[in-house]
Specification:
262 residues; mainly beta; 6-stranded mixed beta sheet; 5-stranded antiparallel beta sheet; 2 helices; 44% strand; elongated
């Protein structure tokens, strides 16, 4: 039983399961569809600079719940009462980060992208396909202000989030990219920066490994999780100020690409 299925997802091999008795629940997977950049509502009219083209865009819509029961017989033209306990197969992920302003600069809007978002899960055992990941777009909201520090928060539904294999990677899974719209020096500018969230994803404990006999697979560890970015993103009127690499910390990097409008 499912609640929350919508046009953004499909059940892989469902027709075969319905029409061919050789198929079982083990053959079914929930897949989030790929979305062309031109069809993403949040990017309409936006000159989005793509720094991570190897990850396709995908679009989740709302949470999805599932109940799986065995050895139940249903017969045509008869009524049956079935009790159901729905559990989420999507995971609500939040991200908190800080922006420190130096000098005469004001942030007006932020558009964010997160890669490494799982796009396929096996329905029998909730195993995540760590090789099938994509990107989502979200809009961080200003949660509070402390002097010259802005605290932002974003939240979204996923099947799971997979981190990067190396802290040095700036593309691939587990990367947040930001387009930061600012007013500075009498001009409108867009700073493009990012961060590899390898440490934050590991510390959030979003996934865990399950062993079934000789088989190991990854599943979502909990229904909700928070990605906490410890280092501040520092910007002045000219650029994003990069941090030196520091063991155990995720650090922001500058794309060296700045859009300026008079």
């Amino acid at each position: 039983f499912f609640v929350g299925l919508n046009e953004s997802v499909e059940i892989e091999k469902l027709e075969s399961y319905i029409n061919d008795y050789s198929y079982s629940m083990r053959d079914l997977s929930l897949v989030v569809k790929k979305v062309p950049k031109a069809d993403i509502p949040e990017l309409q009219g936006v000159d989005w600079v793509d720094f991570n083209p190897g990850q396709p865009f995908i679009a989740y819509k709302g949470p999805i719940f599932k109940d799986q029961q065995h050895d139940i017989s249903l017969y045509t033209d008869t009524e049956a009462n079935i009790s159901s306990v729905l559990l989420p197969i999507t995971q609500k992920v939040s991200i908190d980060f800080k922006i420190k302003l130096e000098g005469d600069v004001r942030v007006t809007k932020i558009i964010a992208e997160l890669s490494g978002v799982v796009s396929r899960v096996e329905l029998f055992n909730n195993a995540l396909d760590a090789e099938r990941t994509g990107r989502i777009i979200f809009f961080p909201e200003l949660k509070s202000t402390q002097s010259d520090i802005l605290i932002y928060h974003g939240a979204f539904e996923t099947l799971g989030v997979i981190g990067s294999k190396s802290q040095k990677n700036v593309t691939g899974p587990g990367i947040v990219q930001l387009a930061i719209y600012v007013e500075a020096e009498g001009k409108n500018k867009i700073f493009h920066g990012g961060i590899n969230l390898k440490n934050a994803i590991n510390e959030a404990g979003l996934t865990k490994t399950v062993k079934d006999g000789n088989t190991e697979y990854i599943v979502a560890a909990k229904p909700e999780g928070v990605l906490k970015v410890e280092k501040e993103l520092v910007i002045n009127a000219q650029k994003i100020i990069e941090w030196e690499e520091e063991e155990g910390f995720d650090v922001w990097f500058d794309s060296q690409n700045i859009d300026v409008e008079a």
